[in-house]
């Protein structure tokens, strides 16, 4: 099992220690560094900036939001980063949710599975550079022929020859249909809130995708990158307490009451009652009570806190469950260096 560093997306200000952590991750034997985006910082620029100080680690987006840019633009970002890094880019994509897609990007959220499939298809056509790119996609038709079209649109190939036509595309997916499609059309799955005890359920969804006609990969060459908080500490209770606030935000505030993909993931884990209580409290503005309502086991299902022996044992559970990369979030370079004996085991 490999290890990746998840930088995430920025808060109110850029992080002050990310560059140090990226270099430390490479020195510690990490395989990759990932950056995210939400509705502030973008996912590509940090990788180009901080990644320029590295020589080996792969540089991935986890995730770049589909609605933030057209598929042709995403392909341009990816092929540019791939050239600058000498073939180290991973294009991680995800649909986000309706609050962001419609509220921030001003686009419809409907039919996310179809949009994902069509988006990936166009990106692959750009990277293949075999012919001028055309698509009859409903959302991303090329050339554009919809309202306001001049009729002068021309199919094009990228001016720059992509370094790798097979640049890996990983997809962030949470629901069963999306995970199955990811196994069918992508090179890897960016799994959020992965619980090793539910590996059998995930594998059923993945196997459905692998079995589809024309599936791109098999389990043997498909990557599963599971995001997790992993902290070597003698005070796991303090880390769990810190995570209550973050977890309650994602369960109660990162999505609408009618549609919150993160909350649905935890319900599939068996936390229906707890999710409903946390969501109700958070929406009522009772955020401290919402955080207090998050049970320890809901956090420790998808995170690892403890001394080195405990962390080592738990990492083995993730690996045995089929995870090929632990995508780890840490607070500073010192905490990252504490993981080095586990990364290089």
From TrEMBL:
Database matches in Pfam families: Bac_luciferase
Keywords per UniProt: Oxidoreductase
Listed GO MF terms: oxidoreductase activity, acting on paired donors, with incorporation or reduction of molecular oxygen
Claim: Oxidoreductase is one of the keywords in the record: yes
Mitochondrion keyword on record: no
Domain Luciferase-like: 13-324
PANTHER family xref list: 5,10-METHYLENETETRAHYDROMETHANOPTERIN REDUCTASE (PTHR43244:SF1), PTHR43244
Name of the protein this chain belongs to: LLM class F420-dependent oxidoreductase
Organism listed in the record: Nocardia coubleae
Lineage: Bacteria, Bacillati, Actinomycetota, Actinomycetes, Mycobacteriales
């Amino acid at each position: 099992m490999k290890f990746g560093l998840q930088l995430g997306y920025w808060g109110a200000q850029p992080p002050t220690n990310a560059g140090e952590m990226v270099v430390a991750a490479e020195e510690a034997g990490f395989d990759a560094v990932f950056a995210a985006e939400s509705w502030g910082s973008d996912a590509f620029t940090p990788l180009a900036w901080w990644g320029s100080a590295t020589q080996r680690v792969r540089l991935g987006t986890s995730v770049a939001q589909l609605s933030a840019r057209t598929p042709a633009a995403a392909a341009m970002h990816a092929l540019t980063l791939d050239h600058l890094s000498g073939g180290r880019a991973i294009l991680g994509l995800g649909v986000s949710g309706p609050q962001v897609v419609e509220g921030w990007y001003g686009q419809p959220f409907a039919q996310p599975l179809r949009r994902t499939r069509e988006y990936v298809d166009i990106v692959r056509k750009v990277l293949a550079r075999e012919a001028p790119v055309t698509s009859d996609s409903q959302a991303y038709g090329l050339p554009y022929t919809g309202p306001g079209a001049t009729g002068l649109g021309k199919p094009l190939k990228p001016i720059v020859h992509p370094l790798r036509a097979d640049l890996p595309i990983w997809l962030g997916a949470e629901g069963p249909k999306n995970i199955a499609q990811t196994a069918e059309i992508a090179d890897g799955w960016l799994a959020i809130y992965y619980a090793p005890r539910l590996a059998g359920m995930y594998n059923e969804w993945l196997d459905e995708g692998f079995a589809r006609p024309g599936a791109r990969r098999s389990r043997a060459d498909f990557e599963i990158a599971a995001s997790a908080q992993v902290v070597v500490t003698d005070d796991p209770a303090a880390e769990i307490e810190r995570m209550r606030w973050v977890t309650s935000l994602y369960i109660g505030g990162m999505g609408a009451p009618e549609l919150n993909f993160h909350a649905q993931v935890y319900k599939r884990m068996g936390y229906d009652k707890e999710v409903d209580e946390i969501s109700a409290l958070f929406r009522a503005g009772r955020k401290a009570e919402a955080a207090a309502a998050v049970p320890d086991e809901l956090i420790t299902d998808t995170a690892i806190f403890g001394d080195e022996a405990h962390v080592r044992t738990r990492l083995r559970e993730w690996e045995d469950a089929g995870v090929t990369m632990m995508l780890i979030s840490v607070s500073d370079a010192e905490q990252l260096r504490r993981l080095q004996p586990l990364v290089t085991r």
